[in-house]
């Protein structure tokens, strides 16, 4: 099973993500993510044997409890790309308020899972919502212009939990199913 730990966006923020995506409608070469599944990936695990799923759940629950990050407000605004404006693979919406808390949660979960034999992230964690993947460079100039010259504000939400999500790849795209929730103390 393909698993990741995420912060799932509220329905109104998912609508706002769709609006931000519309601002890239004239940029060719982009494959947009489904806004109804908009989330911040806190830790991507990839393919995990089904018999290790319980260990993952327990480890994440323990890490979230131990780091003691209470519920917090997060704002979603600004644009960026991975890996760089010279070579764009992913276009994203950033997290402003709440990025410090998400980073602390990521680090705690990454450390705890590494102790269980899972690979650590090999890049710096940047809290974000993936808007689109660039399939070819037709719309690169438009993407660069919007990233450099606009600062959309999608909105805010109260973060009260993280989820363990299973992602099943289908011909119509990924289908996400919440396997477990990890509450943050209020």
Describe this protein with a few key phrases.
186 residues; globular; 29% helix; Cyclic Phosphodiesterase, Chain: A; 4-stranded antiparallel sheet; 4 helices; 40% strand; alpha+beta
Topology at a glance:
Blueprint: E1 2-8, H1 11-22, E2 30-32, E3 39-47, H2 53-67, E4 72-83, E5 88-95, H3 99-115, E6 128-134, H4 140-149, E7 153-159, E8 161-170, E9 173-183
Antiparallel strand pairs: 1-3, 1-8, 2-6, 4-5, 4-7, 5-6, 8-9
Helix pairs in contact: 2-3
| Rg over C-alpha atoms, rounded to the nearest angstrom | 16 Å
Going by CATH, the homologous superfamily would be Cyclic phosphodiesterase
**Strand line-up in the sheet with most strands:** 2-6-5-4-7
Task: Give average pLDDT, whole number.
Answer: 95
Task: Walk me through this protein's architecture.
The protein is of the alpha+beta class. The protein contains 4 helices and 9 strands. The strands form 2 sheets. It has a 5-stranded antiparallel sheet. A 4-stranded antiparallel sheet has the order 3-1-8-9. Helix 2 packs across helix 3. It is globular, with a radius of gyration of 16 Å.
Concise overview:
This protein has 186 residues and is of the alpha+beta class.
């Amino acid at each position: 099973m393909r698993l990741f730990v995420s912060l799932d966006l509220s329905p109104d923020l998912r609508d706002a993500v769709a609006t931000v995506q519309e601002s890239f409608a004239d940029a060719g070469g982009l494959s947009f993510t489904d806004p109804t599944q908009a989330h911040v990936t806190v830790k991507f695990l990839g393919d995990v044997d089904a018999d290790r799923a319980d260990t993952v759940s327990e480890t994440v629950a323990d890490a979230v409890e131990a780091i003691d990050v209470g519920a917090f407000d997060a704002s979603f605004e600004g644009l960026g790309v991975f890996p760089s404006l010279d070579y764009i693979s992913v276009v994203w919406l950033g997290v402003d308020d709440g990025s410090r808390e998400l980073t602390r949660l990521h680090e705690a979960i990454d450390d705890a899972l590494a102790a269980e034999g899972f690979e650590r992230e090999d890049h710096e964690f940047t809290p974000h919502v993936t808007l689109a993947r660039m399939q070819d460079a037709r719309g690169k100039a438009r993407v660069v212009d919007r990233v450099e010259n606009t600062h959309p504000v999608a909105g805010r939400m109260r973060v009260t939990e993280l989820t363990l999500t299973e992602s099943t790849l289908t011909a119509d795209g990924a289908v996400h199913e919440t396997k477990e929730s990890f509450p943050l103390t209020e």
